[in-house]
């Protein structure tokens, strides 16, 4: 039962944070005004990476599941995912500028 609750909790966290961050980025891209909002799907991948890092490094330790497999992501993986996220967030305005 704890595993099901943890899966539901992870899905709820992902949906809420994806909606919040996606809305903020869409508003930001609209304020730039060069058509970057057409490429918002690229930013959703970046948001997913950020949520994944947050969950694996912080949120999983405060949930219902207490398995032995709980450990943080390695530092290099965390850095790679966060750098990739920043690049993916900056990419839509750049693509829109050159189209």
Q: Classify the oligomer.
A: single chain
Order of SSEs: HHH
| Total helical segments | 3
In helices, the fraction of residues equals over 70%
Instruction: Identify low-pLDDT runs.
Output: none
Largest β-sheet summary: none
Mean pLDDT: 89
Tell me the total number of β-strands. 0
Coarse morphology: elongated
In short:
With 99 residues, this protein is an all-alpha fold. 74% of the residues lie in helices and 0% in strands.
Would you mind describing this structure in some detail?
The protein is built from 3 helices and no strands. It has 99 residues and is mostly helical. The longest helix is centred in the first third of the chain and has 31 residues, at 2-32. The protein is elongated.
Identify the notable features of this structure and list them briefly:
0% strand, mainly alpha, 99 residues, single chain
Explain the layout of strands and helices:
Blueprint: H1 2-32, H2 40-57, H3 75-98
Helix pairs in contact: 1-2, 2-3
């Amino acid at each position: 039962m704890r595993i099901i609750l943890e899966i539901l909790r992870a899905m709820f966290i992902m949906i809420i944070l994806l909606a919040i961050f996606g809305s903020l980025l869409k508003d930001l891209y609209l304020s730039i005004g060069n058509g970057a909002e057409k490429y918002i799907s690229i930013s959703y991948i970046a948001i997913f990476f950020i949520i994944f890092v947050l969950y694996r490094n912080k949120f999983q330790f405060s949930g219902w599941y207490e398995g032995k497999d709980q450990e943080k992501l390695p530092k290099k993986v965390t850095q790679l995912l966060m750098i990739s996220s920043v690049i993916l967030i900056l990419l839509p305005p750049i693509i829109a500028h050159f189209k």
